[in-house]
Amino acid sequence: MAQPLVKKDDDRDDEEYSPFLGIEKGAVLQEARVFNDPQLDARRCSQVITKLLYLLNQGETFTKVEATEELSPSADEVIIVTSSLMKDMNSRTDMYRANAIRVLCRITDGTLLTQIERYLKQAIVDKNPVVASAALVSGIHLLQTNPEIVKRWSNEVQEAIQSRAALVQFHALALLHQIRQNDRLAVSKLVTSLTKGTVRSPLAQCLLIRYTSQVIRESGVNTQTGDRPFYDYLEGCLRHKAEMVIFEAARAITELSGVTTRELTPAITVLQLFLSSSKPVLRFAAVRTLNKVAMTHPMAVTNCNIDMESLISDQNRSIATLAITTLLKTGNESSVDRLMKQITNFMSDIADEFKIVVVEAIRSLCLKFPPQVQISDEFLKQYFERRRDIPDAKESGLLHLCEFIEDCEFTYLSTQILHFLGNEGPKTSDPSKYIRYIYNRVILENATVRASAVSTLAKFGAMIDSLKPRIFILLRRCLFDNDDEVRDRATLYLNTLGGDGSVVETDKDVKEFLFGSLDIPLTNMETSLKNYNPSEEPFDIDSVPKEVKSQPLAEKKAPGKKPTGLGAPPTVPTSAADAYERLLSSIPEFASFGKLFKSSAPVELTEAETEYAVNVVKHIFDRHVVFHYNCTNTIPEQLLENVSVIVDASEAEEFSEIGSKPLKSLPYDTPGQTFVAFEKPEGVPAVGKFSNMLRFTVKEVDPSTGEAEDDGVEDEYQLEDFEVVAADYMVKVGVSNFRNAWESMGPDFERIDEYGLGPRESLAESVNTVINLLGMQPCEGTEVVPTNSRSHSCLLSGLYIGNVKVLVRLSFGIDASKEVAMKLAVRSEDENVSDTIHEIVASG
Fold first, then answer.
1. Across 737-816, where does the E strand assignment appear?
2. Where is this region: Disordered (predicted)?
3. pLDDT at 407 > cutoff 70
4. pLDDT tens digits for 269-288?
5. How many DSSP H helices and E strands does the chain contain?
6. Start-to-end CA span in the chain (Å)
């Protein structure tokens, strides 16, 4: 249940505020009388409904009288609700129709469903995709409760598959497959008809690939030609324009039973390209798939080793872990030690799921390179998992497991370890040393673990005849346990193994009965037991079907997570920016300029290995620009005094010099700083070119004493020119979710225009040119242009001078003559800023 949040006040600014704080049931019921007003206030009604939902979510209950008076869903007058929904099904507003269909199908029964079936059929083929999708999704839910009615909709669903709307096609295909899933021939015909190219939706294409894989598994390989049915279709999907379809096809090929190297090659090639993608999700998907392939076809993956080496340093630990474990399976013996050290460094940062992947990779490594067992043993001690396939490590591994369960607080883990001990312990050289650890579980643990320990003890008794007398003593003690499951297991094992204590060989059938594997699917066993009617005839286990029944497709949606976008760092590191601000505010001439907006990266004004090294940092304020010159004297025999930079702003008409701060002395190899300040129009991205001359008095220095002469000579040194450009007025700031940020910004100050960029070498060059011109942060990896792409979209984010948020959408296209066209859409918090962005592009 959700915890109510603390109210916010002046002294507790860091705590969150809950709008539901202090809500009481009685007060809300009084407010609910607003529904009885002749003129309904929609806003107040919405607020009351929100409060009622909150109370319900907190566990509050409403009496029948309260519910009826306040029109709650628990009222008896359900007919009012259903009648209202049926009226909405015929509304002219498509959104009302869609929502009414969804709600009706969730609350309806078979009787009402027959009355609205005609409307649902019409909705499936409706021209509006929202209505059609709502009807199809409702059909998927209704198929679980009223399959006979839904199966009559096959013709309409078949028609919906031809829809141009992506979601309609996706939902229609999912529903049609569920209708036909128990008819293998019908599914095969469906796949055959759709693989000819009628499916355009990428989502539907992914579903079709999965259904095709199912048909391939059931059909097998053609014994005459050796070809697989539909393999050409899967291979063709590797060339699809949608990345999700490409990956789904590649994964389907790698998961084919008995797949050959020739069949794997095109899929491996595609996955190798994904390894170098700028999108983390593609890198993760590719390396995880290759990790699975490496278990059965390690040689097929070796071509990707170089690409996976680069992923070891990936910021995403999951990707790095999968890359290393795959390399352990495909690499050579000389690289094992290095890879093992890298794994150990970040094991604490990865999820348990990937720790298991690592352990599986270590097992494969030990089987491949036996001399490396000792290296892996040190690592596996930390994570206790051992595998029976490494004889030299088995006994030490079992002892690690025994010590682990002494302090283990997880019931599931303890039972799994006990099961493993029962299977592998009796096969060791001294099985008796494990008995103490197992019986401790009977004394100290909960009922579930105690029952598992009893079974483990019985396995030792069944497998090691010399241990039977000691095992029987321990099992008899378990007969007095306070849990019936523990007592029943102890009784069963004593009677079956021979509880009189005689040392006799355990019958083979008894071992098979007690500890043999169950070759019947548990779901089938459960269903058969539920359908069994108690009678004089006992339940026959042979009547349980051994084939796994096909289940309806159920797509599981991952728990929602907020996207964690990582914007690029600002132009200078935060620490450097703070240092610049403190430095400038400490200079009296610049202290009144206000808050520093941005500091650029240093721009070199001299070539390397010249007499003097000078670079400039551009500090941008709202109405001022300060040029910060970093100077270094590289001549040991000279001392420079009264160092200043003479700036010519004749090509920067909007700037006017208002002050400077010269450098008193510049000894050899000691950096110094001099400043020149300019005023500019407030909030305007003034641009211009600046010429620079370093002026100073030079004095000769005696090398023996290090003292400078009293007299000096005035001199000048020509520096390179530099420019203040539009990008200097923009700070790169990333957004975690560009689409949400774009929609929340709103279209009020949106400006859209199209531009011709002229002939360019490539689309990538055009994208980089515009990004550099605007000085904004690319979002979601859109700065990377796929090879040979004829069109591309790029998303940019930034903070314009005056702390105005700006978002930009760029759409590029290039024709055969390499002429590039661009569409620019800008949204910001200020319409003048949106116009300015367009002006920058137009003049750039």
1. 751-759, 777-778, 791-800, 804-814
2. 529-572
3. yes
4. 999 899 888 888 999 999 99
5. 34, 17
6. 57
Strand pairing partners for 728? none
Burial of 399 (0-12, 13-18, 19+ CB in 10 A): middle
Q: How many residues appear in the chain?
A: 844
pLDDT in the model for residue 486: 92
Tell me the average pLDDT across 812-830: 88
Whether the predicted pLDDT of 378 surpasses 60: no
Q: Quick count: other Cβ atoms within 10 Å of Cβ 407? A: 6
pLDDT of 558 above 50: no
pLDDT range class, residue 101, cuts 50, 70, 90? confident
Mean pLDDT (whole number) for 718-725: 90
- What does the block give as tokens for 548? 């796994």
Strands 722-724 and 598-599: unpaired
Nearest to 622 by CA among 583, 575, 680: 680
State mean pLDDT over 346-350: 57
pTM of the full structure: 0.41
CA nearest to 723, candidates 694, 690, 693: 690
Q: Round to whole Å and give the CA distance between 281 and 312.
A: 16
Which tens digits make up the pLDDT trace of 612-671? Answer: 899 999 999 888 999 999 999 888 888 888 999 999 988 888 899 998 899 998 888 888
Answer whether 789's CB lies under 8 Å from 783's CB.
Answer: no
Which amino acid does the sequence have at 639? L
CA dihedral defined by 265, 269, 270, 275, rounded to 10 degrees? 140
Question: By C-alpha distance, which of 716, 722, 724, 721 is closest to 612?
Answer: 716
Beta carbons of 307 and 323 less than 8 angstroms apart: no
Residues 615, 673: Cα–Cα separation, whole Å: 10
Confidence of residue 72 (pLDDT cuts 50, 70, 90): very low
Cβ 591 vs Cβ 585: under 8 Å: yes
694 forms bridges with which residues in the sheet? 645, 717
Radius of gyration of the chain (CA): 37
Instruction: Pinpoint the alpha helices (H) of 256-316.
Output: 261-275, 280-296, 298-301, 305-310
Residue type, 377: D
Q: Which residues are 624's β-sheet partners?
A: 679
Amino acid code (one letter) for 394: K
C-beta separation of 366 from 383 below 8 A? no
Q: Determine the pLDDT at residue 508.
A: 72
DSSP labels, 674-742? EEEEEE--TT----EEEEEEEEEEEEEB-TTT-PBPS--EEEEEE---EEE-GGGGEEE---S-HHHHH
Amino acid found at 63:
T
C-alpha dihedral (41, 42, 46, 48), degrees to nearest 10 = 10
State the alpha helices, DSSP H only, in 498-558. Answer: 508-515, 522-531
DSSP element (H, E) containing 336 = helix 336-346
Contacts of 632 (CB under 8 A, 6+ apart): 612, 613, 614, 666, 669, 670, 671, 672
Q: Give me the pLDDT at residue 71, please.
A: 42
* Residue where the block lists tokens 């520096």: 719
Round to whole Å and give the CA distance between 263 and 297: 12
